[in-house]
Amino acid sequence: MLPYKSLIQVDRNSSVSLHIQVCNSFITLISGGTLQPSDMLPSSRVLADLIGVHRNTVKLAYEELISQGWADSVARKGIFVLSKLPIVTKRRLTNAGEQLQKKEPFTWTNKFKDAVPSRNLQSSILTIDDGFPDVRLTPIDELMREYRSISRKSYGKNFLKYGSAKGSAHLRQAIAGYLYNTRGISVSAENILITKGSQMGIYLAAQLLLAPLENIAVGVSNYLLADNTFKHHGANLVRIPVYDHGMDIDYLEKVLRKRKLKAVYVIPHHHCPTTVTMSMERRLKLLKLAREHRFAIIEDDYDFDFHYENKPYLPLASIDHHQNVVYIGSVTKTVAPALRIGFMIGPAPFINAAAALRELIDKQGDTVLEEAFAVMFNNGEMERYFRKSLKIYKSRRDLFCQVLKSEFKNKIEFTLPEGGLAVWASFDKKTDLVKLSAAALKKGLSIDDGTFYRNESFSANGLRLGFASLDEAEILEALGKLKAVLK
Amino acid sequence: MLPYKSLIQVDRNSSVSLHIQVCNSFITLISGGTLQPSDMLPSSRVLADLIGVHRNTVKLAYEELISQGWADSVARKGIFVLSKLPIVTKRRLTNAGEQLQKKEPFTWTNKFKDAVPSRNLQSSILTIDDGFPDVRLTPIDELMREYRSISRKSYGKNFLKYGSAKGSAHLRQAIAGYLYNTRGISVSAENILITKGSQMGIYLAAQLLLAPLENIAVGVSNYLLADNTFKHHGANLVRIPVYDHGMDIDYLEKVLRKRKLKAVYVIPHHHCPTTVTMSMERRLKLLKLAREHRFAIIEDDYDFDFHYENKPYLPLASIDHHQNVVYIGSVTKTVAPALRIGFMIGPAPFINAAAALRELIDKQGDTVLEEAFAVMFNNGEMERYFRKSLKIYKSRRDLFCQVLKSEFKNKIEFTLPEGGLAVWASFDKKTDLVKLSAAALKKGLSIDDGTFYRNESFSANGLRLGFASLDEAEILEALGKLKAVLK
């Protein structure tokens, strides 16, 4: 007989009833090959004694085992493992550690073998991030109030059911109004898809627009996750220089004489990472080229809401009368990263295709959250939030840049950003950013190591320094620590 | 001079200030080609008179226009549209209606041209759905309480920042415990990815496992969105019959003699749509074949939590000692469709690849919501919810099936489902389900028309009738209406 006393152990504190625990132990023994088809199980009395449970518990476990098709009862003989079960060769249970060393049980794409996850920022350590909002300002109480109020109404409960892959109709309507009022984009709900943040917009656009080996133009420096998304779809990335006035559109025009482009990806406000803004002249010329060469412009405008000086240039989407622009934005980047709400704007048939693809990816968004945001847009709460946080971020930017200017001479070069939540800091060539990042962490400051923004054509020794998520005391403390490790 | 009086109209009730409205109107005129480079703008006095605003408003608008790079001021002459702007040919503003009729502004995949969106169920009309939970039972107040409590704590606010593409560490831990307690699946957090519902698990698995033209085995009848996801990835679907004891594994074995399979997609509990359950014998044989032929089993177990009779068969994943199973489940399908939380279980390196892909798709989930669910799993709230709703659904199933049996003789055939939230109803061949659905809607009952479950090899005249989302009075009313249109 098997050493059941050690093989079957029950936990009296578990929420799982004892007979189910015993039954599951037998299933493990049978499915693992320790018990073979036609093997006899011990009598209920014997097993009860061995493992220290009541006999009725074992009887119930055996009934369960039989009802689940693992064993059978033979009159006057006992309980047997079902003879028709396939024979399993006995082997030890694997665990993840073992499993890594042996051959994989099945094969999958090796595209992601060397993928490095993005920085996880969900900690309380003092952090200079890449330029994200201060979640302490997020109007989360107001949002929750709306969420609860909606989900308590009998009509509101409907938003817990399956809805549309395009997102809440109310939020699409509210976003249409918000885009018109803040940036002159004139679209109706049929041109709008609610996404999970900007990234989903980039992914959907890439998958719809790009077949393997087709060309997409991107900046020499660019947002890494956008590059990776286009590469993932097999597209060929054509790098276009980005200078002080944004992407070099004359260069792009020359490229177009030789190669067909399916799309151009631009971040006209606060290009990522270097924060430059594309001039109006270049914007218009880019639109003209798109019209003539029939390519799509993917306009990633993640950061429009934060401008500190004049009213910003209007987005390409607002002056595009030929529908060449797929416009991507997000609430995520302006309110809180973990609240996954964004939007994609485009010609109605393109948005329909995007919604059909999105249905395969994750069906739809969280409609109640979308409805809550719709209320917040409509009752002015979002506008109040933007106004309030803009004021705070402006004073944080000013303090941050003032300290950067006075305390980091010869170490860091930068231009005062007229918008956005980060400064592009060029470090002295002798500064090893990877070492700097490690040294800072020892002093209690988390700061990026610069690898995220490098690519095959861009290797500047720079970092995006996010000032918005730190209050004044934290800015002084963080830059103090940075200075201490930079000397 | 242009007819500015009709071209520029301001709205005094708008939240946008008047000078910005005037400025934006000029941008529209310039970018649309109505005003050309080097054109002179009217003097501020003239324009102020024409459009009925204060002269200073026009002056401010012109300043804004200049600062945004659209115009320039020439001393003692006036304001001119910037001469270096590209020339735009004047045309009318397009709208979506026009746009559909002309050539698309750019091209994209036509894969989704004929896509039909899923049924939108977010309405209050009496509905027989496909088998979804009753959102009136969703513990939304408890969930919101946890959400708020987390987001108010200073540590909890960290969950509003960017986190991990794999999902909340606490929820992954809680799901590990829940899977072990409810279904004997023994995995650790590194084997778990938190997804947006089951559908995202299917999408991620498809994209990682399937290259174009590779084979995946699926049921002759199958969940349409799974089929569509595999087809979208260019895979070849090998149809395997599904009878009363689930997928015919002997048939699968014969297929394997001739063709290499990358994966098999199964719904062993309550196969969708026909609700049959795969026998234990077949489960073990499928695992054996997977081991020998090194294919992945995608086990979609969306519905495990609802069983009314014996304890259910354990999932393949719980008796898979060779890690051939990618196990997909969701909280969405058991708590509320619009709360997008699911999970995917697999070998740790596979889960790492899935997380890297997921980062390109939408970065991550809503961490605060994930944390709130983790608390609900850990404090027993989820278990209480499952126990309570199971009891309610069992009595609804019994009533629903009793009425179906007594009132729909010769019209509908069905088997009492031992779990899940729907009955598979085979209708009399003479019944035209499309007409039935339309007639029912006229009587105030929304019911599917059967097309969703048909595919190239499955054309049964059947419907999934969801009983769970209707209370007793609604069941009687809904089936009463159905009977009235079925005679």
Automatic annotation (TrEMBL), chains A, B:
Keywords: Aminotransferase, DNA-binding, Pyridoxal phosphate, Transcription, Transcription regulation, Transferase. One of its GO terms (molecular function) is DNA-binding transcription factor activity. The keyword Transcription regulation applies. It holds the Pfam family GntR. Residues 16-84 form the HTH gntR-type domain. The keyword Transcription regulation applies. It comes from the Bacteria. In the C-terminal section; belongs to the class-I pyridoxal-phosphate-dependent aminotransferase family. This is GntR family transcriptional regulator / MocR family aminotransferase. It comes from Chitinophaga rupis.
